[in-house]
Design a protein that fits this description.
Structural class: alpha/beta
Subunit structure: Homodimer.
Strand order of the largest sheet: 2-1-3-6-7
Oligomer: single chain
Distance between the termini: 13 Å
Radius of gyration: 18 Å
Function: Quinone reductase that provides resistance to thiol-specific stress caused by electrophilic quinones.
Keywords: Flavoprotein, FMN, NAD, Oxidoreductase
Number of domains: 1
Order of helices and strands: EHEHHEHEEEHEH
GO molecular function, one term: oxidoreductase activity, acting on NAD(P)H as acceptor
CATH superfamily: Flavodoxin domain
Helix content: 40-55%
EC number: 1.6.5.-, 1.7.1.17
CATH topology: Rossmann fold
């Protein structure tokens, strides 16, 4: 049995969001193909994801200097413990499915905060004399991204910093099996329904072998 984290970063519902519509169909097809796997849904808009603020940085600094966890302030304890729980859950999973829209050429702020929370030395990567090394080899990931225009190829490709950002983070973790499903060109109201249906069909096929 494998554990898959289904990580969504959109504040609306599948009826209003192209990325969530495709993601929902993917995860349903995945469950059908892998009935014994555990699917954990993380709606990042409903999760407590501490920012890397003064409490977090001071708390980590105290721990590195030899202070015990009990010597941290209440705010430092709460945030540091929550961040550790987030990354531990992440490391324990076998597969990752990220679902997000492209906003301002990149990912929503909650997804950036989540990648910050999972980018922890000694957990998802480590520093060596030869540079950083990812610790999550053997795992796999998928990113479902929706956008109004086409960014995966063509003249707007240089502006795409959503999937390309997440792809680099995942490779940094040592994950080499990374796929993407792009739901692109949805700003065209006439073509949007067909674009969504095509992406859903693709997602169902990917789900069978993911």
């Amino acid at each position: 049995m494998a554990t898959i984290l289904y990580i969504t970063a959109h504040p609306l519902d599948p009826q209003s969001s192209f990325s969530l519509a495709v993601g929902t169909e993917f995860i349903e097809a995945y469950r059908e193909a892998n009935p014994t796997d555990e699917v954990v849904h993380l709606d990042l808009y409903k999760e407590n994801i501490p920012q890397f603020d003064a409490d977090v940085l001071r708390g980590w600094g105290k721990l590195r200097s030899g202070s015990s966890f009990d010597q941290l302030s209440d705010a430092e304890k709460s945030k540091v413990a929550r961040l550790e729980a987030i990354v531990d859950q992440y490391v324990a999973a076998d597969k990752y499915v990220y679902v997000s829209p492209m906003w301002n050429f990149s990912v929503p702020p909650v997804l950036k905060a989540y990648t910050d929370a999972t980018s922890i030395p000694g957990k998802t990567f480590k520093y060596t004399t030869n540079g950083p090394v990812g610790l999550l080899s053997g795992k796999k990931a998928l990113h479902i991204q929706a956008s109004g225009s086409v960014y995966s190829e063509g003249p707007l490709a240089p502006l795409e910093m959503g999937y390309s950002y997440l792809n680099k983070v995942l490779q940094f973790y040592g994950i080499q099996s990374i796929e993407a499903i792009f739901v692109e060109g949805t700003a065209s109201l006439e073509q949007a329904p067909a674009i969504k249906e095509k992406a859903i069909a693709h997602a169902k096929e990917v789900a069978k072998r993911f």
